[in-house]
Design a protein that fits this description.
Layout: H1 2-17, E1 26-27, H2 28-41, E2 49-53, E3 56-57, H3 64-69, E4 74-75, E5 79-80, E6 84-88, E7 90-91, H4 97-112, H5 121-135, H6 140-153, H7 162-176, E8 224-226, E9 232-237, H8 275-283, E10 287-290, E11 300-302, E12 304-306, E13 315-316, E14 321-327, E15 332-344, H9 355-368, E16 375-381, E17 386-387, H10 389-400, E18 411-416, E19 421-428, H11 443-461, E20 464-472, E21 478-484, H12 492-499, H13 509-520, E22 527-534, H14 547-562, E23 566-571, H15 580-584, E24 589-591, H16 598-610
Helix pairs in contact: 2-4, 4-5, 4-6, 9-11, 11-16, 13-14
Length: about 600
């Protein structure tokens, strides 16, 4: 009875303390594409993607009901960094849906002028507001409606202590007349959040997203819950605490783990896992540490973590190759900035095509055999497989008429035509490919099957092709795995190397593209296709995360085109439309929306590109 009364009280007080309007909510996923187009059309950075901003603690004074309910501690505010334009995942501040929609467009326009200089929060947002209203006067009426609605929702100054009331008065003046306030008065508490402005202290997101695959514990057989909050959770690896160290009396107080420091993700298989409760706890954490034990869990959560990668090294083929890298801030190539480390699988064995792929491979080979150039007659030859009757009759007629003619070119020969084509397939083998596509396979498994079927199909056409995989750990080394070079025939040894690929490290795409371009340009073919297969955008542990990596990759693609190559990207990243048009152009990439279809679609795509 006490528990039921407590639950009823919690629902009532939480509902009473709620100041949002869920019935009028607008979700970012509904308008993400339009917001991205608007941001770039207004002059925003084309290399940034639109993503959801995590909720952060604001520390401002809350009303009595909110304090009793323990709610309204966090708020989603917009900001911009070198990688993304961060916008709230849901906006429900206002009772009218149209106003919530207006707020998304206002924040996108406001972020266009943000160049991330060090500047006081209130001064910066006033400056951006003045600039936005001046550059885009058509948005003025919307801004005025937003200000009027927002001021009605804010806590009045007369209900606040004197110092906080002075802050509130200054903020209201700054909203009504941007540029009229020089500084924010000091107070013991932060001011109430202003959703019409950019975040005062945006959190720093760690580079490199990676999932942690199950190894010791296995995959388990219980329910899997996908966390769809679109947020990347900051994390670090931690040693699992011993059971005897988890008491609150027999240990030192500094050893106690809090929700923000430790979460047992590998819960015991005999537990009755409450995934909804675990997901709610995860959303309340600013950062978390993860460890692993040997038990399989009955239920699992899937979400993105910023964790260091782990992978085993293969056989190194050389000392390394130094390559330049594009520094977009200096607008120049920095020489010898990256080191390519050529590698080959150390434990690869010759093997046959896996049984599960043989039926599909047979169909693809039959289709690709039609791409093989037809055999055609070459006339006027000095020798050949048979006499060219037309040429002989002309020769005999000329001799009978008394004309002098040579007997050269009286034969014809049947020869196979040439497609004059070379293709290099570059596959992303970063740690992000260790994520699960479905209950049966990971991204790396899908890529492996795609490489198998791609090689089977091209071997039927006789086209010259090579296959490489890449991953990186900062600029030294950038690991490039040789699966098949242009001088090798497709055989069981190549299949063994493909079967041995495994995920590891990060995605320094610019260096891998430059190295592949140098290999491909040495081929004497008239048409040279550089096919890039990836599951995400460029990233690495250093400054390559964000704008730097985007610009370097774009420059590498431009260099490849200058060398006469044809770069084309195939991706399974659902958010690829945010950045691939900027990297490759509108007609030089394709998004496979169902990753499980990639093995079958990749060879067919090649056929269309080279027909």
């Amino acid at each position: 009875m006490e528990e039921k009364v407590g639950e009823l009280w919690h629902r009532i007080i939480t509902r009473m303390a709620n100041t949002r309007y869920p019935d009028a909510a607008v979700h970012l996923e509904e308008i993400e594409l339009r917001i991205g187009i608007l941001f770039r059309a207004l002059g925003g950075d084309g290399g940034l993607e639109v993503s959801a901003a995590p909720a952060t603690r604001h520390g401002a004074r809350r009303g009595l009901l909110a304090r009793v309910a323990g709610s309204n501690k966090r708020v989603e505010l917009a900001w911009r960094d070198q990688r993304s334009l961060r916008l709230p995942a849901t906006i429900d501040y206002f009772p009218h849906r149209q106003l919530n929609h207006y707020l998304y467009t206002w924040l996108a326009a406001l972020a266009v002028g943000d160049h991330q200089e060090e500047e006081a929060w209130i001064a910066k947002n006033q400056r951006l507001t003045v600039k936005t209203l001046h550059d885009y006067p058509g948005i003025t009426s919307r801004y005025q409606q937003l200000v009027e609605a927002h001021l009605a929702e804010r806590m009045p100054a007369d209900r606040l202590p004197p110092s906080e009331a002075a802050q509130e008065t200054a903020i209201r003046q700054a909203l009504l007349k941007p540029g009229s306030i020089d500084r924010l008065p000091s107070a013991n508490r932060p001011p109430q959040p202003v959703p019409l402005w950019l975040h005062p202290f945006p959190p720093i997101t760690a580079p490199g997203s990676a999932d942690t695959p199950d190894q010791e514990g296995g995959r388990g057989h219980g329910e899997t819950k996908e966390i769809d909050d679109q947020q990347r959770h900051t994390a670090e690896r931690a040693k699992k605490p011993d059971k005897e160290d988890q008491g609150l009396i027999t240990i030192r107080m500094e050893n106690i783990f809090t929700w923000g420091e430790f979460m047992n993700l590998d819960r015991g298989s005999e537990e009755n896992d409450d995934l909804d409760s675990a997901a709610d706890a995860l959303k309340d954490m600013d950062s978390l540490s993860v460890s692993r034990d040997a038990k399989a869990s009955a239920g699992k959560l899937r979400f993105d973590l910023d964790l260091p990668s782990e992978a085993n090294d293969d056989r190194v083929l050389g000392e390394g190759i130094l390559l330049p890298e594009w520094d977009f801030k200096k607008q120049k190539l920095v020489p010898e900035q990256c080191r390519i480390l050529p590698m080959m699988a150390a434990d690869a064995r010759s093997m046959e095509l896996p049984e599960r792929l043989r039926r599909t491979a047979k169909k693809l080979r039959a289709q690709f055999q039609h791409l093989t150039p037809a055999r055609i007659w070459h006339r006027g030859q000095q020798d050949g497989c048979e006499i060219d009757l037309d040429a002989y009759l002309r020769f005999a007629s000329d001799r009978a008429a008394g004309h002098t003619s040579t007997s050269d070119g009286l034969y014809r020969d049947l020869r196979v035509g040439a497609r004059d084509l070379a293709c290099l397939l570059l596959a992303d083998l970063s740690l992000s490919t260790d994520t699960w596509v479905n209950d049966h396979s990971r991204v790396i498994d899908v890529i492996r099957d795609s490489l198998f079927l791609f090689a089977e199909s091209l071997s039927a056409t006789g086209d010259q092709f090579a296959m490489y995989g890449f991953s990186s750990r900062k600029r030294d080394p950038v690991r490039v795995h040789q699966l098949k070079n242009f001088d090798e025939h497709y055989c069981g040894t190549v299949r063994g190397r493909i079967d041995a690929i495994k995920p590891g490290y990060y995605t320094r795409m610019g260096a891998a593209i430059r190295h592949s371009s140098n290999i491909l340009r040495e081929q004497p073919a008239g048409r040279r296709l550089l096919l890039i297969l990836t599951d995400g955008k460029p990233n690495d542990l250093d400054k390559y995360e964000g704008r730097y990596g985007i610009e370097d990759t774009r420059q590498a693609i431009h260099e490849a085109r200058q060398q006469g190559l044809q770069p084309f990207c195939v991706t399974i990243d659902a958010r690829a439309n945010d950045y691939l048009p900027y990297l490759f152009g509108s007609g030089s990439y394709v998004v496979i929306h169902k990753p499980s279809q990639l093995p079958r679609e990749l060879p067919l795509l090649y056929a269309k590109l080279t027909a």
